[in-house]
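User: Predict the structure for this protein chain, please.
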Amino acid sequence: MLESRLIYLRKKKGRTQEEIAKILGITRPAYTAYETGKRNPDYETLEKIANYYEVSVDYLLGRTDIPSLPQMEEGFQSFINDPSLEKWYKELPKSKEEDLRKLRKMWEILKDNGEV
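Assistant: Here is the predicted structure, written as structure tokens:
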């Protein structure tokens, strides 16, 4: 899925592989390998690609067909794409209701004190 989306997005912008490689700070052969599926970009490069094309990493990887989240949700998109918060984010819905109430109360205290 990544390969076809990279090709589609590059052509939509009217760019060459060489131009995209320069924008990303990588070699043309490295970028070509992404488009042919011979190599996968590291997380940092994947983020650069997503930012350049103004799409989500999930869209690039084929996890969603929605290219990007609405502008008002940009902060949330950054939050869910943060590897250090991924485990917490995935486990939150499994939490007990009592623990969620405590978390909400802690959030309100922090917010009221101007700490967030």
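The chain has a mean pLDDT of 84.
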